[in-house]
Design brief:
The protein has about 210 residues and is an alpha+beta fold. The chain has helices at about 10-15, 35-50, 60-70, 75-85, 90-115, 175-185, 190-205, and strands spanning about 120-125, 130, 135-145, 150-160, 160-165, 170. It contains 7 helices and 6 strands; from the N terminus they run αααααββββββαα. Helix 1 (about 10-15) crosses helix 5 (about 90-115), helix 2 (about 35-50) runs antiparallel to helix 3 and helix 5 runs parallel beside helix 7. Mean pLDDT is about 85; it is low at about 1-30.
């Protein structure tokens, strides 16, 4: 089986989350579109843990992040899309196991990366743009760093939940996951190999 080498796009986003300080300025929550409000609410749920990240163990961060991430992200859809055509060849039990393993891995990845606060701020655009290929809305956000450098982090929200994250506005985390899953599946072992790799990676992140 091929080695599972994770590209760090989403984990870099997770690291950025540790420095969020809600730089909304004059924007009011009432002015946000429903999808943008969803992202704002997500960060508000994370904020208490983010502020304490430096004093918490990675397993405690993992435990605290789980409810917010599970409710904000459509992890079932993300898992299915990442698996691609192979998803239909999995049994019902295998699909459930892959979903569970991927969800645990994703939260652990966030918990591993989010460790401290460095003074940056995060701004969400109150209006969204339509995503034409598969439907949904793009929520545009900016990470404002102390040195004046801005980083674009966009979210694809469909059906009221996040199904993809774009670093620098264009780098799709879902596309990266799809490539990684395909590499594992191509190595043989099917869904069971995918579950095993995700679980091993999760345990490594939580050490």
């Amino acid at each position: 089986m091929k080695v599972f080498k994770l590209r760090r796009s989403l984990t870099r986003i997770a690291a950025m989350m540790a420095v969020v300080l809600f730089g909304y300025g004059p924007l009011r929550a009432e002015a946000l579109s429903p999808a943008a409000r969803h992202i704002e609410s997500y960060y508000q749920q994370l904020m208490p843990t983010l502020k304490q990240a430096g004093q918490l163990s990675v397993r405690e961060r993992d435990r605290r992040f789980t409810p917010a991430i599970s409710s904000a992200f459509d992890l079932g859809t993300m898992t299915r899309l990442a698996a691609g055509p192979a998803w239909t060849t999995f049994s019902g039990a295998q699909q459930a196991a892959v979903r569970e393993a991927f969800a645990r891995f994703l939260v652990a990845d966030y918990a591993h990366q989010v460790t401290d606060y460095s003074g940056e701020s995060f701004v969400v655009d109150p209006q969204t743009s339509a995503e034409s290929r598969g439907g949904g809305e793009i929520v545009k956000t900016q990470l404002i760093q102390p040195g004046g450098r801005n980083v674009t982090i966009n979210y694809l929200v469909r059906g009221g939940r996040v199904i993809d994250v774009y670093l620098n506005g264009t780098i799709s985390d879902l596309a990266t996951r799809r490539d990684e899953f395909a590499s594992i599946l191509a190595g043989g072992g099917g869904a069971d190999a995918l579950v095993k790799t995700l679980r091993e990676r999760t345990e490594s992140l939580l050490q």
